[in-house]
Write a structure and sequence with these properties.
This protein is an all-alpha fold. It has one domain: Amino acid/polyamine transporter I. The protein is 68% helix and 1% strand. It has a two-stranded antiparallel ribbon with strand order 1-2. The longest helix has 36 residues. The C terminus is likely disordered. GO terms for molecular function: amino acid transmembrane transporter activity. It is a multi-pass membrane protein.
Length: 483
Amino acid sequence: MIRRLFRTKPIEQILADADHPTHRLKKTLTAWDLTCLGIGAIIGTGIFVLIGTAIVGDAHRPGAGPGIILSFVLSGLTCALAALCYAEMSAMIPVAGSAYTFSYATLGELLAWLTGWNLILEYGVACVAVAIGWSGYFNNLLRLAGIELPHWATHPPGGTEGGVANIPAAIIVLLVTVILVIGIKESARMTGIVVVIKLAVILFFIGIGSTSLDSSNWSPFMPQGFAGVGAAAAIVFFAYIGFDAVSTAAEEATNPKRDVPIGIIGSLTVCTILYIAVATVLTGLVPAGQIDIHAPVAEALQVVGFKWGAAVVAIGAVAGITSVLVVMMLGQIRVFFAMSRDRLLGPWLSVVHPRFGTPHRATILTGVAVAVLSAFIPIGEAADMTNIGTFFAFVLVCIGVIILRHTNPDHPRPFRLPFMPLVPILATIACLWLMWQLPALTWIRFGVWTVIGILIYLGYGLKQSKLAALEPTPSLVCPEKQP
């Protein structure tokens, strides 16, 4: 039984399954496309929305205040270490599924299933948080234009601001679903255009905002001490997780062994520099306690008198967060697709559309589920659940890259991780430390989700997986007794 739980899938078989005509995805993405997908996923809700909650704090955690700058540095360093591990694995195993596929090749089927199960949590709930963030900036933009949507139609039920449903969040998810069904190249092209727009908007905010900085706003720098910085680092980690979505699109890259590492490391580097600059300007513009948690970047410009600048940022945020939603949903769908192709989920999910070459069934299922959840879940809870699922996946990838160096040392590695095994060990420790900063309620939900996943695997995946089908069936006839 133990052997069955930890059976691994050979890299050669993973690559062969990816090339099967029934499940083969179109290879159309270049290094530029992948870098744009990475930037498109990273710069969005984290910097435009969650930075406000991280600075101010909430009932579950202390705020970082101006120390948010250090929070971005801590999260960025953690992601940089994990990104190097992802780059080596993605170049070796350039197929859909990201950490799920890597775990299947190194840690065995049960841990691969749990990784995939938590990636579903990561990407699915991230999509919900992103859609809610998009709705907040969209409503802010409408208000600047003199249009006010009904309160009941823009807030989920419950809490002090309870409404009926967040309808704009659900609508944008359904529109993105249509785009993803049509094709990955079309999605990447749209993302590339939007990336240029939102980078211009962020540079605009940094340039305009830096003319009105007040150094007194940076004192005290850490009002809640390092506890506030650490807690904020755990939540703004959400702002970085998009880089691993690049690895989920590796199977659709024209030259994945070269282009995927470029896309992962390049996008993360650009975004880390911009995040630190935005955090510095935002906390210098407005006292930490007065920062709006719903649309902090746009509102900061409005507070200091740049109303027209706030409108520009709101437009860029709406466009930018849309591209994040595209890439996050892409990641969710590719994980569904990879798990279905391995028969750990229903095989109907891995059917590819005959015209568009996309996993349309997995796309539609994801779109409908995310749209419903976006309408009824608050953003803070969604972000925390996303982060804990991501930390779990990162830890397993970092452990997996060490294991694979020992179990398969001669396999070609187009990108080799430097300072082995120091980098993955440090990445694992950093992820576990940030994971520990999350609220206790998030850990409880994560535990419940994991238990549900184990039960589903034992009831379905253990017997139905492709690897199970390849195992010899024990004979039911007893051998004759020897005289």
